[in-house]
Inverse folding.
């Protein structure tokens, strides 16, 4: 799951959403340094990633696209799934996507000093380019993948990511729809569990490499 999905799966809890958003930037036991709701979000992020990586539908997606993206297939799949979430947003939320996104941007600005340094660096770019509000746009996705291609090079082959998405659109969309039902239910249950007392939850360290 990428930024938009992690935020959506936090429910209506703003500080939990904040923790869920920064989950990849808070390593090891550093989650213990945050306030209760942000801790909950950080641990929810890790639980969602673990659930996602083990899910047979997500594995099907990564298997389908791995010949094109090698070890970056999981990262590309995450972004594809954010695209489908944005494209089908009205099916999952009563709020307009633009309203949801603006609330997140305000949350990030108000809590800027709480954010990890890496997140602080990307927040102005995220807001200026409206990352969260334009995932449904194929041209926007292409620009995102081009930026990633500069970092990963030919091994990642991410300059071809929107082309591969369009070639396999129906199959990838079906994967997302099937998977997202399951991750919604998982996240709802996990959120109840973690909200009770995140300090008592034994959780693994970050399992994903998002660079």
């Amino acid at each position: 799951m990428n930024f938009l999905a992690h935020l959506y799966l936090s429910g209506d809890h703003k500080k939990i959403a904040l923790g869920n958003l920064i989950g990849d930037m808070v390593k090891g036991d550093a989650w213990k340094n945050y306030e209760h709701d942000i801790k909950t979000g950080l641990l929810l992020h890790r639980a969602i990633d673990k659930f996602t990586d083990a899910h047979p539908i997500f594995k099907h997606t990564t298997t389908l696209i791995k010949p094109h993206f090698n070890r970056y297939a999981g990262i590309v799949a995450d972004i594809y799934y954010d695209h489908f979430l944005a494209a089908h947003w009205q099916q999952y939320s009563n709020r307009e996507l633009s309203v949801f996104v603006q609330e997140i941007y305000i949350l990030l600005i108000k809590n800027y000093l709480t954010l990890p340094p890496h997140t602080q660096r990307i927040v102005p770019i995220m807001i200026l380019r409206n990352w969260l509000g334009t995932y449904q746009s194929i041209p926007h996705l292409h620009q995102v993948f081009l930026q990633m291609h500069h970092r990963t090079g030919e091994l990642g082959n991410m300059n071809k990511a929107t082309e591969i998405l369009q070639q396999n659109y129906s199959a990838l969309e079906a994967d997302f729809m099937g998977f997202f039902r399951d991750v919604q239910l998982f996240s709802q249950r996990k959120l109840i569990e973690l909200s009770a007392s995140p300090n008592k939850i034994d959780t693994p360290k970050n399992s994903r490499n998002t660079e």
Notes: The chain has a mean pLDDT of 89. The first helix runs from residue 3 to 8. The chain has one domain: 3-195. The radius of gyration is 16 Å.
